[in-house]
Amino acid sequence: MSKTITIDGLTVPFRDGQTIMDAALASGVYIPHLCHNPEFKPHGSCKLCTVNVNGRNAASCTMPATEGLQVLNDTAELNDERRALVQMLFVEGNHLCPSCEKSGNCQLQAVAYYLEMMSPHYNHFYPTREVDASHPGILLDRNRCIYCELCVRASRDADGKNVFGLTGRGMATTLIVNSASGRLGDTTLAVTDKAVQVCPTGALMKKGLAYTVPIGRRIFDHHSIKDVQTGGGHE
Amino acid sequence: MSERSGRGPHPIPLPHPQGASPPGSRCFAATTARQAGEGEGEAVSPAGDAKKIRIATCSLAGCFGCHMSLLDIDERLFGLLELVEFDRTPLTDIKHCGPCDIGIVEGGVCNAENVHVLKEFRKNCKVLVAIGACAITGGIPALRNNLDLWDCFQEVYCYEGGLECGQIPDDPELPLPFDKVHPIYEVVKVDYFLPGCPPPADAIWKFLTDLLNGREPKLDYEMLHFD
Ligand code: SF4
Ligand code: SF4
Ligand code: FES
Questions:
Q1: pLDDT higher than threshold 50 for residue B7
Q2: Domains plus CATH for chain A?
């Protein structure tokens, strides 16, 4: 008899060591998330995956599953909070989707669609952030970075290169590049590196793809991130 | 469709063309678009003698793309015109907005004149709708928000290739530009948002027919996009 938790009344099996998120994804239950990618150690920073566990809120990507947990996930209240978090991510960076090559393939935007975010609601910060175009094959546009640390984890744990790091706190947080000049072009980062593939937003992108797949024919133009991330696994 | 985390549905109910009949027995409730405007999907029926819904539209710091998309509802416009009449819009060329039921604003706020127009709309329109990426986020004009305004002007009016005796326009009639472009909801209260760059004609149609039929506007997944 395998151990189980319930998510919104549905019985979901888990193995020891799995988080609530792991168990949910394995059973095809979508919990909105941005900083989580099953291939990497959880970071627990975006809080989008917050669920109610036995009456208390917790980040499902870091919370271990234990026998009999009662989890609430797809509730109006939690989705309202998630929408507010996504709205804050939009106003604290510079997300002008019509000018972004990632539009339609972007997970931040896709979660906003899923949560029916009709506007960013809060006053925009319009922060000044640096763009690093020094690498011949890769563009780093910090205007779109949500500091999910996925590139940091991928570069360290999968590529073994440690190209990226987060520095500073709160509003001063920024993504830095590990080279003497601080520029991407002076690192060993390669276009094929995992770090370049995992970015959920348009912050870290392969150059030269541009609009080869036109707007309107991209993945989240037609498929909800819920179906993409529970059906076909992560991109 | 209304902003769900706090801004809530609009507080002022639309005046109904036939008075206070309940939803379901209202005059647009039983007719389809095909009957009214020969368009796709559900829609609107002629209001007969009833008072028409008055709509004003304008473009602030926008490209008129949202207005083009509105015109893209094509022959459904005829059905729409049975129900609504236009106040100030680029189509009627009326210069100031009078009392209206619905105001539709394209574009963000990039100069002092935009603020005056926007406030005039808010004052006169019972329901104010922000249409398109620029009205909702600042959009493409907001790409200049991290550049010095003077540098921008110099680039455009002095250094750009092909200019002869380039000079920065300084006619006193020109509105004062702001150093940053803002979405309209940062200046006035907005009741509904219709995103897209531009929103497709079908999304505009769905939105308007929902609103005119007294329903909370709701877009299908594929109609909601930010690009
Ligand atoms: S990164 Fe995503 S949300 Fe940000 S501008 Fe690009 S498409 Fe929009
Ligand atoms: S560049 Fe992308 S992957 Fe890296 S922290 Fe920013 S958003 Fe996350
Ligand atoms: S996905 Fe769990 S905190 Fe980001």
A1: no
A2: 3-74 (3.10.20.740), 83-208 (3.30.70.20)
